[in-house]
Specification:
alpha+beta; disordered N terminus; single chain; His-Me finger endonuclease fold; five-stranded antiparallel sheet; elongated
């Protein structure tokens, strides 16, 4: 018999309405890119330690980058991400930039119209020398995103709603989002055997493993992208779990298609 627990969930939301309030506050951790020409000065702050977007009176860290860039003209070189309003940004003018916070971005070649998807950008060298901060400085947009998520995850006051398996449900820390973003950051490649999954229908064959076994500890340093076969061999506990019919079927399906049975 299946139970929906709708009444219980409604009661819990009334007692401690964390889900909706946290959705409004924390979904902007990885916000959509924003055309800086279309926002008012009061909605973005250029400070010595970083660039911040203002949402409902709260500051959220962002970077600047050019979504349209002469990639081919500069010999397949992609734009850089700016952490502050550095000398280069001032020279070029902010009208060419958008605000971003994602681990990778799409870039369009300004001359050819070619779309380059999910590019990880390096950090501007001017920013690295001009930024004034006591915090560690990211080396790329991927590093920037991981630091951003880690900072929010390490907020000890943040309540977390979990499912029956212990996985967090509260956005943007819900396991579906965390797992997808982490696998995406690893280019859907197993960190153990290096097999890369390119068929979107087969992304299910890549799991995200918690190194310390704590399913709420979603810091990127605690995660590992593994194919189902490598995941099943992590330890005896995982071997037992993957011996169950549903998981065993997934491993068998993976082996049948990718031929890793003897590896």
């Amino acid at each position: 018999m299946l139970y929906s627990f709708e009444k219980l969930r409604k009661l819990l939301d009334e007692i401690a309405p964390t889900k909706d309030s946290l959705r409004k506050k924390y979904l902007v951790v990885e916000g959509e890119t924003i055309d800086i020409k279309k926002i008012k000065d009061k909605e973005v702050l250029f400070e010595d330690d970083g660039i911040y977007a203002i949402f409902n009176g709260e500051k959220f860290r962002r970077y600047l980058y050019m979504p349209n860039y002469r990639v081919a003209h500069y010999e397949n070189t992609f734009p850089v991400a700016h952490l502050i309003k550095c000398t280069k940004v001032t020279e070029i003018g902010r009208g060419y930039y958008v605000l971003g916070s994602k681990s990778s971005v799409d870039v369009i070649d300004r001359d050819t119209g070619k779309l380059y998807k999910a590019k990880v950008l390096a950090i501007c060298s001017y920013c690295l020398t001009e930024i004034i901060t006591d915090n560690s400085i990211p080396e790329s947009t991927e590093d920037f995103f991981n630091n951003l998520i880690a900072k929010e995850i390490e907020n000890k006051d943040l309540p977390k709603e979990t499912d029956v398996f212990g996985y967090t449900l509260t956005p943007p820390f819900d396991w579906d989002t965390v797992s997808r973003k982490y696998r995406e950051s690893k280019n859907y490649t197993c960190e153990q055997c290096a097999i890369q999954i390119t068929d979107t229908q087969d992304y299910r064959f890549l799991h995200v493993h918690h190194k310390d076994g704590n399913k709420q500890h979603n810091h990127p340093k605690n995660l590992q992208c593994l194919c189902v076969l490598c995941h099943s061999k992590v330890d005896d506990h995982h071997a037992d779990n993957f011996d169950k019919p549903r998981m065993k079927h997934q491993v068998d399906s993976f082996v049948a298609k990718y031929g890793k049975k003897d590896k």
